[in-house]
What does this fold into?
Amino acid sequence: MATQTFTDDLKMLRRSVARYFPDLVDELEIVLAVCASLKINNISQPMAVWLLGPPSSGKTTILDCIKQLPAVLWRDDFSAASILSASAGMAEEDSLLPQLNNHVLVIPELAPLSKNKESKVLLSYMTRLLDSGSFVRHSGSTGRIGFTSPQRFNWLGALVDVSPALMQQMGTMGHRLFMIRLPVQTRTFDDRTRALTRLTKGRPYEAKLEVVRRMILAFFQNLDKYYPDGVSWDSMNDDDFTKSTIAKFTILLTNLRATFPKQGPPLIEHENRAFQFLMGLAKSCAFISGRSHIEPQELKTTARMCLDSAVLWRSDMLRLLINKDGMSTDEYVSLSGCCAATASIRFRQMVELGIAKITTKSGATKPHNHISLDEQYHWLLDKRLRQYF
It folds into this structure.
């Protein structure tokens, strides 16, 4: 692709994605930002992002678009043993771990992970890697193997959804994963018919995919050309409102995906790690837009990552609390489709997490509970942020 400037490259890429995969523009740009983060010198924490959505929602298409990038390690499946094998007959360099440094591990189908009986072991290994980038094992056959020095890498994968059991498991270990939920397209019968008819015209799917792949490959080749030694971040020019809002979103996120054990207070992750991720992603989005400082436009991605990475019903309730002046139990039951008992449990959790408050209001026949957004989260009502909910 012969272009004149870095900005031209990005504009051409965005136009092609908008033309061929119009429903995936935002999601693909986040994935590209994750890949480009390896070019930012002062980001060291690995990034792990899973795409969630029903079959045919575009998850695999997004990952297929980056498949040809040299930094991508594409694996259709992997196991705990494959990360760093202790088998006496397998060379250490054949394991996955030695290949990770400065790469993006892409697993297009994570369904086996969510059902596999060894998922707890696999997640614990990946949690350790995502926490520090280092991993060491010791076995009777091979002795000590692994790396104590950090491996800088990112992890992208796709899954239909994260089950409550898997979310609980991740919360118990300490969250290291973030999600993008692809929206479900609601179309009429006629709209679907017209969409299928249009498939008989224009480029076939594989041809469109190949065009976007080539442009992405060229875009990253130019990144290497423009920034052969990577880019050092200009933190002094980061927008103050954006930085403070990302910090607020971080605290919100850690509460939205807290785990409630059978006894005791909720388990809430330490916000430092989540803040480093959200700041790193904001920097990466700015970087692929041609900047080395963050601006308010990065908050769109931050808000989405916060809500998509949370327990789903909590994100949905938060949106209702932001867009409504509170609601009664009956109103929430009608809007969410859950029963009154479930609504009561959810209300109590949101209050215990400090996100909402409950007051008693008089009714036509008897008083009723009314839930509304807690004052400490009224910053979400800022007109600059309301558009993202």
